[in-house]
Amino acid sequence: MTAESVAVELLMDMAAGHGRDIWARFERLAARLTGLPQVRLCSQLARPAIQPGVSVYSVPVRGWSGRYVLEALTTDPSSFDNGTVKECLKTLAEVAPLVLRAQASPRRARDRNQGQSSLVGSSGPMQALRRKIEEVATGRAAVLIEGETGVGKDLVAREIHHASDRRMGPFVAVNCAAMVETLIETELFGIADRVATGVRGRLGYFEQAHGGTLFLDEVADLSLPGQAKLLRVLQDLRVQPVGSMQARQLDVRVVAATNRPLGVLVAERRFRSDLWFRLKAFVIRVPPLREHVEDVQELVENFIKLYGNGDRWTLSAQALDLLISHMWPGNVRELEHAIESAIAARRGGGEIAMEHLPDEIRVGYEPVTGNRALGGTLRERCSRYVRATLRQCGNNKSKACEQLDISYHTLQRHLEYGLDAVDPPMGDPPTGSLPVSRNDAADDRAVREAAPDGAGKREQTSGPPDAPLGGGSDGGGGEEEEKERQE
After folding, report:
1. Thinking of the domain 289-373, which architecture would CATH place it in?
2. For residue range 106-130, what is the model confidence (pLDDT) as tens digits?
3. Distance between CA 381 and CA 376 in Å, rounded?
4. Which residues contact 426 (CB under 8 A, 6 or more apart)?
5. Kind of pairing, strands 55-60 and 68-74?
6. 35-39, 74-78, 133-137, 367-371: which has the minimum mean pLDDT?
7. Residues in a beta bridge with 282
8. pTM across the whole model
9. Phi, psi values for residue 313, rounded to 5°
10. Is residue 42 helix, strand or coil?
11. Does 457 score more than 70 pLDDT?
12. CATH number for region 124-287
């Protein structure tokens, strides 16, 4: 048997779909070919301990950044004096990349399949998000993804990975919230073999992501000691497994995600400021679903394809209007579960109506009748959205204004123009009402930004948000108080 025949057998095993056991088969064939007791292919960071009295001859595997070596072990050192054995080991080291690729290909295939369910939506916020991903994908610095729970931060991380030059490398996702405090260092950096009785060496997440991307989800849930350990590695990308005396230089891009504002946690001393600065080289904010409700229909169609089992499904106009008017505190994940639940309740295809949707979505919904049930004018759609927001806020107008980023005056005008109101002609507003601005929310933001110390926060309103417009009993109360202060 020659090294070439070993390569042929390995290729035949891979073609037959036996790649799962190809690593162990390669080691057995190599031992038979060299006539040595043991030949093993292992990572330099997790090399098994050598027993006393055992001699080792190592050959590095090319093309894998020196991370892997082919080792021959024997109790007879004179076996290595045979030049034929050494040449055979060098040839086998050239065959070893076949084994490593066969082991890595299933994982990469899973990553590609998961990446196919990419970002859905053609609205302005989603287009801006895609542009941001393209900007940061070509870099090597860390990326911090911010967004509420359920917006799809993991999908954004995968999009960054697949759009980068690391797309052929591994994508390793780590849930920081699920890591045990006492095992954080072992999980991230690995552990050497036999550091204690019965302990076997294993690669940490950083080493597994070598040449690819490491995604640290919910990084805000790391404890302060865990943050310190993570910072130490991020500074120079060198890891030292537990129980090992050697550190290893890695090539990893770190992408972190959080659903909590790290700046606030830093101010509360619950997150390290130096780690925050290290992670936020690039910051991507994923918008909540309520900021791009125009993508709801496209998302629904995508989820119907995903869970519809090939059946023909339609969505009633009233159900779509309900989905659009809902505030979606759980964001896209909540919408996905709602469609999945509706399909399960309405088996075999057909129309998904309101009664098939979860109860928590239908609570407080005000159906619209007539020919304008789904569409209507832009003002009517905005009015329904404002009313839905007000219901979600428990009819607290101050909270609704803050969430919608509009003034109390704007909120009141949307409520006055109810769903049954007739649109007045342009330039001819109803008596007693102010003209409607087409860019009202933008005007409100501009006033607040231009006003010093928050002046104009509630423009055209002198009283509290829930007080009647105008504040006092007459319009001169403010001038009299100003005169008294000057006197």
Report:
1. Orthogonal Bundle (1.10)
2. 444 444 444 444 788 888 889 999 9
3. 7
4. none
5. antiparallel
6. 367-371
7. 143
8. 0.57
9. -125, 145
10. strand
11. no
12. 3.40.50.300
